Amino acid sequence: MAGVPGVPGVPGGGEGGGPARAAARGSAAAPRDRAAGKAPPPPGPHRGPWAGPDGAGEVERAWPRPGSASGRPEAKAGRRMAEGEVSEGCRLPVLRRNQDNEDEWPLAEILSVKDISGRKLFYVHYIDFNKRLDEWVTHDRLDLKRVQVPRKEAKTPTKNGLPGSRPGSPDRDPKRKVEVVSPATPVPTPTETSQASVFPQNGSARRAVAAQPGRKRKSACLGTDEDSQDSSDGAPSAPRMTGSLVSDRSHDDIVTRMKNIECIELGRHRLKPWYFSPYPQELTGLPVLYLCEFCLKYGHSLRCLQRHLTKCDLRHPPGNEIYRKGTISFFEIDGRKNKSYSQNLCLLAKCFLDHKTLYYDTDPFLFYVMTEYDCKGFHIVGYFSKEKESTEDYNVACILTLPPYQRRGYGKLLIEFSYELSKVEGKTGTPEKPLSDLGLLSYRSYWSQTILEILMGLKAEAGERPQITINEISEITSIKKEDVISTLQYLNLINYYKGQYILTLSEDIVEGHERAMLKRLLRIDAKCLHFTPKDWSKRGKW
């Protein structure tokens, strides 16, 4: 399997065919504050196919009352549902603590119920929150006065004339999903934007931006350091089912909606998985899953791991080391020559990548694993995968930074390395689309910083304004032309002036970029890269 993710991306998840094919969810990407565990603002009443505890009438969505001191929703008059009556599919407020260490009562759906030594546990998914926050809770965290029971709908005839029924949960019924798409800002065609000038808007500003109506962006976005996670929240696209980690659009199986691994021990780190991963069934009930950090083989106990380490002679990923600077190294791994490692890598990545299905065909992919070196060996930090042959000019299929290394600049380093390979290959590249929300943030941040670095380095000749074309920016950076245009529009740099398109930079943009670059300490040094591209089209079946 090949993966991006996401790596969050694991830069993820994305982030978002190939080892990690991004899947379109059919709804807008969840806000980042929800993905981080922050409560959304209370919406208005929501009515749907949910009956109250007594089965009569529709019930309002049980959101916390803004005026309540505790944040707990006020219970409607009615009997309190017994703990034993709460079953899969029910919705009710559940107590949780957010990132600000405050109690809140978001609406959640019961996905599973289990009994351990006479004590009931409920697996809940918080509605409109990222699935990584799903958890097992005890009954004392449930508001049993606000239970919403799925209403049993009348069976409707199907095509073959036999009666059928529709699922009660709106999340599992694709027909219930409605996506509202707002008109997008028009994008200049490549010919219209093929040449632009860097033009100061006024005498006091070195470079200025002319604001476009309805498109206000904070300069702080340039300093964002999100790690990629390739899970698809973007626009729908038809993924190809050709890799070992591909997008799964249906994702309706209740089993795959629940985390099945409690904890993973990888070297000196213990990781809490975010999503389901198809490890063998006998390993899913263990309190800890032990992985060899060098070959990524899994075992059911610490003793098994210790016995394995006496036989495993690897101290770095298999494959060729193609980059080393300081303690950072990159290894190129062929999915055909190193199938076992590639499949184990994808199993690990799936724990942090949502909406992916695992397949075991890793032959069409190359994996680039980033490691950090110390006296004990080369420890995996993250990775990205790419197709050996891509007809869409994808230079990344899946990208992921492991959780212990996130928000430390490694995600952007993975992205920069992928473009450095594209420069050596003499191509422009782009990540596989659609990107996840976090994946898009990571790439947008990298694209913004890279393009602004080029623009601010331009020098005027003979009193003329600096001149550069979109094609020239694309050739210098190896960023695909469409991504260059979308980034310039995102930053509000493209303006129409006296019959031509020009690029204008404001002091805010310049200062924000300079602050972001001061924080970006990790960079790829092209002199340390030892890489010879291969023509896979002449190698038959890879």
Task: Kindly describe this structure.
- Helices cover 17% and strands 20% of the residues.
- The protein is built from eight helices and 27 strands.
- The protein has helices at 32-35, 302-309, 339-350, 410-425, 437-456, 470-477, 481-490, 507-519, and strands at 50-51, 91-93, 96-97, 103-104, 107-116, 119-126, 135-138, 149-150, 156-157, 163-164, 195-197, 245-247, 264-266, 269-271, 289-291, 298-299, 320-325, 328-334, 356-358, 365-374, 377-387, 394-396, 398-401, 430-431, 467-469, 494-497, 500-503.
- The strands form ten sheets. A five-stranded antiparallel β-sheet has the order 17-18-20-21-23, with helices on both faces. Strands 2-5-6-7 form a four-stranded antiparallel β-sheet, with no helix packed on it. Strands 14-13-15-16 form a four-stranded mixed β-sheet.
- A hairpin with a 2-residue loop joins β26 and β27 (500-503).
- The longest helix is centred in the last third of the chain and has 20 residues, at 437-456.
- The radius of gyration is 25 Å and the shape is globular.
- The two termini are 16 Å apart.
- Pfam families: MOZ_SAS, Tudor-knot, zf-MYST.
- Residues 20-30, 180-194 have a biased composition (Low complexity).
- Its main location: nucleus.
- It is found in: Nucleus.
